[in-house]
Design goal:
Residues 5-80 form the DUF7552 domain. Pfam families: DUF7552. This is DUF7552 domain-containing protein. The mean pLDDT is 80. This protein has 150 residues and is an alpha+beta fold. Strands 3-4-5 form a 3-stranded antiparallel β-sheet, with no helix packed on it. Strands 1-2 form a two-stranded antiparallel sheet. Helix content is 30%, strand content 30%. The protein contains 3 helices and 7 strands; from the N terminus they run αβαββββββα. Strand 3 (85-97) and strand 4 (103-113) form a beta hairpin.
């Protein structure tokens, strides 16, 4: 099993390009998750991403032989947007204290595109991350973020 896992990861690495330079990624169609061995991987060509889908299935099938409880995913290839959004946030401590005793903070977030400058700035609004390295986060993760009221 170790040889299969090692070889599969090596082949996925050889197909992947540096983060931020690929047009395609692989993720679960239902949850948007991007589990090992494809976490954070991007691919320049659709064919490379399609090959990574099969390799990721093989990898997880091999893991499942050892642990039948390993989750199953329906992997799909997705194309990255032409101009990805970038986010910059600043959190500053204020003089107040929250009800739970923690310091109160103020947070400003700017979301921008690489081609058009500033797009949106928010102060003290709930900040919810809708995507990770390789795609959208699940509804449960968004719910937890909203419930935390950060």
């Amino acid at each position: 099993m170790d040889d299969i896992l090692r070889q599969t990861r090596k082949e996925i690495e050889s197909l992947a390009v540096e983060s931020g330079h690929g047009r395609f990624s692989v993720l679960c169609a239902e949850t948007g998750e991007c589990p090992m061995p494809i976490t954070g991987k991007q691919f320049e060509a659709h064919d490379d991403a399609s090959r990574a889908v099969q390799l990721a299935r093989d990898y997880r099938d091999a893991l499942r032989e050892h642990d039948p409880e390993i989750p199953q995913y329906r992997f799909v290839v997705t194309e990255e947007p032409a101009r990805p959004l970038q986010m910059a946030g600043v959190r500053e401590r204020t003089s107040g204290t929250r009800a739970n005793g923690l310091p109160q903070t103020q947070r400003s977030v700017t979301v921008a595109s690489d081609g058009n400058g500033e797009w949106l700035t928010m102060d003290n609004a709930p900040l919810v991350h809708l995507a990770r390295d390789c795609g959208p986060v699940g509804d449960d993760a968004v719910g937890r973020q909203l419930d935390s009221k950060l």
